[in-house]
């Protein structure tokens, strides 16, 4: 009982931190229904006009589909490469495996701006600025580490001896992989795929460097729109992306937690 | 399954001069072994003795450094594991967790392109044989260890392989279940007529199951024989100590004629036969060949006698077991029948045995390191 005041203080502090963490996200939801063309908070009135604008304005729709296309291609490429890399790393017996894994994870650690400068410099020479190929290559590099981590977690709980058992029953290496390994690590691959998609879909730093008037992704469109004219459409877009990514990431987390439980 | 065709279902195995080296370590050192069609052969030995390496070589999981391996008269050294058509049962079950019991057992049949109807028939028969027919729709995680191992056994025999390999299949199970499954495995071997090669470090299990046992030690086979041969006529001290209980006596040796005599703490005992020169003799005695007598009674003709005192007396129901500490400090293990005179701890006794029941073997310090 003597501890009660302390406990109340602790509770308040936790609440404060929680509010601090989710506030920026939650602020955009009421703002997206603002009646006036203003980003002032709190908003006034209620209207769907900014959602309407998003779905009718070709600038917004084009950039949305650009992002969807890039992220879709990145998800497939990064999942393929990352899964193979994770498999290779898990079968490596010598000490080089740890070093190689560290190298493959670096895009996650290196500051985005640094990567962006490097990528921009190279892309200028190879005319990749403002191209889908350019976006896919850059984003795939960023997404591969997420796939490697997700698939490696699955492989860690996968019993390699099952492949030996499959061989004794008549399965060649590819058949054993297809019928035994793949179904058992599928949850890890799927969650890697989702993380790869999201990584590309909301990437902004590199995208700002390599964008062009002909190819803008959604985050770039949001950024230019909010800096040029205070268009509240960004809050409607933000709300849509927030809800969509929350769903996707939750799905990913649920899937990967199921896989580690075996 | 008729008994007449049962021999044809099993294949003969010939391991010829098999050697496996890992860098400087020799896991298998020039091992040769012939296994008859339909035989139940157990590879017995302590861990690291080469028994599991031998099994992995036959299964195709490990390549030989040199030597040959034939199943049914044909060399299979060059064949990868998935083309060998050999059933394998693992200690860790290795059931596929994402498939039901039925799917697990059907797996090797599906790989062989068998149609659904025939597959179902074979799966039902195999599950029937291991008494798991009611579990076809369960997943492995829903089964106990013993049940999982029975499913693994069904999966390994469902495609009628001429040879079944088992790598300590009961190692992870408790004693009671293990004893019951041993009898089940014996029954299945009898019904199938397939050649079984069974790896274990448990000598009792080897005696219960096997037609013949190959005793492994340090990458070599010490002796191959029936359980009775290994127990009664061990070729080496290692085999003698690994199979069953025994007492080994050492002392100053003298040979005269066809006999060797040992002087132990001032008392002399004799054993038939003699060893090659340079070998240090050990007299090996099995517990049931020994008897205890009061020190004031004279030994019968042809009996050896050593004086000691009882250091442990255990009543076992079917008889008694004694430990007798001898004059040189060594300890003898004696099994006495219910009819024999009982002794208690501290009693001075004479340890007696017939000269013909003693086995003369060459001493070997490797033999002592293997007791588990």
UniProtKB/TrEMBL annotation, chain A:
Single Gene Ontology BP annotation: transmembrane transport
Entry superkingdom: Bacteria
Residue ranges of every copy of the ABC transmembrane type-1 domain listed in the record: 64-252
Pfam (any one): BPD_transp_1
Name of the featured protein: Putative spermidine/putrescine transport system permease protein
PANTHER family with a match to the protein in the record: INNER MEMBRANE ABC TRANSPORTER PERMEASE PROTEIN YDCV (PTHR43357)
Transmembrane segments annotated in the record for this chain: 64-87, 99-123, 135-158, 179-198, 204-222, 234-255
Membrane topology type: Multi-pass membrane protein
The family this protein is said to belong to: Belongs to the binding-protein-dependent transport system permease family.
GO cellular component, one term: plasma membrane
InterPro entries: MetI-like (IPR000515), MetI-like_sf (IPR035906)
SUPFAM superfamilies: MetI-like (SSF161098)
Keyword line: Cell inner membrane, Cell membrane, Membrane, Transmembrane, Transmembrane helix, Transport
CDD domains listed in its UniProt record: TM_PBP2
Localisation: Cell inner membrane; Cell membrane
TrEMBL record, chain B:
Pfam families attached to this UniProt entry: ABC_tran, TOBE_2
Tree of life domain: Bacteria
Matching InterPro entries: AAA+_ATPase, ABC_SmlMolc_Importer, ABC_transporter-like_ATP-bd, ABC_transporter-like_CS, Mo/tungstate-bd_C_term_dom, P-loop_NTPase, PotA-like, PotA_ATP-bd
GO biological process: quaternary ammonium group transport
Cellular component, GO, one term: ATP-binding cassette (ABC) transporter complex
Domain named ABC transporter: residues: 13-243
GO molecular function: ABC-type putrescine transporter activity; ATP binding; ATP hydrolysis activity
Alphabetical UniProt keywords: ATP-binding, Cell membrane, Membrane, Nucleotide-binding, Translocase, Transport
Subunit field text: The complex is composed of two ATP-binding proteins (PotA), two transmembrane proteins (PotB and PotC) and a solute-binding protein (PotD).
Function of the protein: Part of the ABC transporter complex PotABCD involved in spermidine/putrescine import. Responsible for energy coupling to the transport system.
Name by which UniProt lists this protein: Spermidine/putrescine import ATP-binding protein PotA
